[in-house]
UniProtKB/TrEMBL annotation:
<dbReference type="InterPro" id="IPR023753">
    <property type="entry name" value="FAD/NAD-binding_dom"/>
</dbReference>
<comment type="similarity">
    <text>Belongs to the NADH dehydrogenase family.</text>
</comment>
<keyword id="KW-0274">FAD</keyword>
<dbReference type="InterPro" id="IPR036188">
    <property type="entry name" value="FAD/NAD-bd_sf"/>
</dbReference>
<keyword id="KW-0560">Oxidoreductase</keyword>
<protein>
    <submittedName>
        <fullName>NAD(P)/FAD-dependent oxidoreductase</fullName>
    </submittedName>
</protein>
<dbReference type="GO" id="GO:0003955">
    <property type="term" value="F:NAD(P)H dehydrogenase (quinone) activity"/>
</dbReference>
<feature type="domain" description="FAD/NAD(P)-binding">
    <location>
        <begin position="29"/>
        <end position="340"/>
    </location>
</feature>
<dbReference type="Pfam" id="PF07992">
    <property type="entry name" value="Pyr_redox_2"/>
</dbReference>
<keyword id="KW-0285">Flavoprotein</keyword>
<dbReference type="InterPro" id="IPR051169">
    <property type="entry name" value="NADH-Q_oxidoreductase"/>
</dbReference>
<dbReference type="GO" id="GO:0019646">
    <property type="term" value="P:aerobic electron transport chain"/>
</dbReference>
Length: 428
């Protein structure tokens, strides 16, 4: 893993904070589950609020619990080289006066306000909270109906999967040439599927040799590939076609094995590399909050990010179901939304504990930046995704978003990127 150059510290946090003493007195405690964009920003935002309210670190304890003190930049996991798709968080959290606990949360008991977790050594412990922020994100949806999915498919959902895919692709070079070896099938023609597919011809040729006849196929269940809406989907299709990517629509995957894939209509494609990308579901921890969830497993929250009808529990990032604007556009499972949802949750939880007014979440501006391999990238603005930048110009913006963690700015604000406070650069 590389240095923390990906993250610029808000100057507020650069002063030295003392280690938090262990408390026997009832210090109010915020527990944040998750170290993704939402969890990290919730922690920093809660610490910021504590600081600007003039309270010492010891007045409210902020604890972030996650399996590793690392921010994995999931939007970069489709890239050829994922060595820069993560950033260490330990120093940042310590500087902000946030205590990090290494652990995987297994159980949330809202009645007793306790989370139960296992630590790296396998021991179980519990942690009481006064306010809980659930920022445990999402994972790839893997339907049980698809035979062989767990055993034979690859994905780019988490770092582990991205590394496994990379090792597998590299191992193909030492296998005898065959259609199955030279073919990659991507299941799902959505955001992730399109980004992986667009990268794949060049990636495969880099491994197998420039002269090898590689085949990259996207299987989409719907009748057409139109996840970017009527303005931008034609551009995506054109870009994929120019890269030699085939799109097969109305295809439902039935079974995957080591040598290929079968669809329900009886099509068989020989392939040693089947990549699954069929959507995301909110973290399983959401099921432990005793209330309703939406069809993606997200918890319904108020505009202050408190889980509706559940005291003292907030949900943010990919675990929250919330409208981004007054017109009712729901947030997507995206970094763009996770960053601001995280900031909002951290701020509001601290305000709640300190008896200060909360600030409702609102993020009317929406943009999408889709990476499309050697073609470049497509940047669209608005919820109807009007084409704004294409190819090289779009790619420059995508690189900026992916390396400076700015989600995604309107193009005319590009000049404002160098503003001093990263927190202010993000779209409010
Ligand atoms: C390949 C790919 C491409 C993407 N491209 C884009 C893009 O271009 N633009 C965009 O905006 N979005 C993109 N996304 C979506 C984006 O990555 C997610 O929406 C975003 O990461 C959500 O942030 P989060 O903090 O809510 O959750 P996550 O990033 O999922 O983080 C969850 C955190 O919770 C921790 N956690 C989970 N369970 C537990 C537990 N039981 N106990 C303790 N900790 C736990 C995890 O370890 C992690 O630290 C992409 C996603 C993928 C997979
Ligand atoms: C974990 O459990 C083992 C065995 O019960 C014990 O020896 C060890 O001290 C525990 N570790 C921690 C960090 O509590
Ligand atoms: C996939 O289809 C082939 C024939 O096309 C068949 O022999 C095989 O059993 C099928 N695999 C599964 C797991 O259904």
């Amino acid at each position: 893993m590389r240095s923390s150059k990906l993250i610029r510290f808000p100057t507020l946090f650069q002063k030295h904070h003392q280690a938090i003493p262990s408390m026997s007195s009832p210090t109010p405690t915020v527990v944040i589950i998750g170290a993704g964009f939402a969890g990290m920003w919730a922690a920093l935002s809660a610490a910021r609020k504590r600081e600007i309210a003039g309270r010492p670190d010891s007045s409210v304890e902020i604890i972030l619990i996650a399996p590793e003190p690392i921010l994995y930049i999931r939007p970069r996991l489709y890239e050829n080289d994922v060595s820069e798709a993560s950033a260490p968080l330990a120093d940042l959290l310590a500087a902000a006066g946030v205590r990090y606990i290494q652990g995987l949360v297994q159980k949330i008991t809202v009645k007793e306000k306790i989370v139960g977790y296992t630590s790296a050594d396998g021991n179980s412990s519990t942690l009481p909270y006064d306010r809980l922020i659930l920022a445990s994100g999402s994972t790839l949806f893997r339907p049980e109906a698809v035979e062989g999915l767990a055993e034979y498919s690859f994905d780019a959902d988490q770092m582990e999967g991205a590394l496994k895919l990379d090792a597998h692709l590299k191992s193909l070079a030492s296998q005898p040439e065959s259609p199955a070896r030279n073919t990659v099938v991507i299941c799902g023609g959505g955001f992730t599927g399109a980004e992986i597919a667009a990268e794949m011809p060049r990636r495969l040729r880099g491994i197998l040799g420039e002269s090898v006849d590689v085949r990259v196929v996207v299987l989409e269940r719907a009748g057409s590939l139109d996840f970017m809406g009527p303005h931008s989907s034609p551009v995506v299709k054109e870009a994929l076609a120019s890269l030699g990517v085939e799109i097969l629509t109305s295809q439902t995957v039935a079974a995957i094995d080591a040598e290929g894939i079968n669809t329900t209509s009886g099509t068989r494609i020989a392939s040693k590399t089947v990549i699954w990308t069929a959507g995301m579901r909110a973290s399983a921890l959401t099921a432990q909050i005793p209330t309703e969830r939406d069809e993606l497993g997200r918890l319904f929250v108020t505009q202050n990010l408190q889980v509706c009808g559940v005291d003292h529990v907030y949900a943010t990032g990919d675990t929250a179901h919330i409208a981004a604007d007054d017109e009712g556009h729901l947030t997507l499972m995206s970094c763009q939304h996770a960053v601001n949802l995280g900031k909002s949750a951290g701020n509001n939880v601290m305000a709640d504990l300190l008896g200060l007014p909360q600030a409702p979440y609102s993020q009317p501006y929406y943009g999408t930046c889709l990476s499309l391999g050697p073609w470049g990238a497509l940047f669209t603005t608005g919820w109807d995704r009007k084409v704004s930048l294409v190819k090289e110009e779009g790619y420059k913006l995508k690189t900026q978003i992916n390396t400076q963690l700015i989600y995604p700015p309107p193009p005319n604000r590009a000049a404002a990127f160098t503003a001093a406070d990263p927190a202010q650069q993000l779209i409010a």
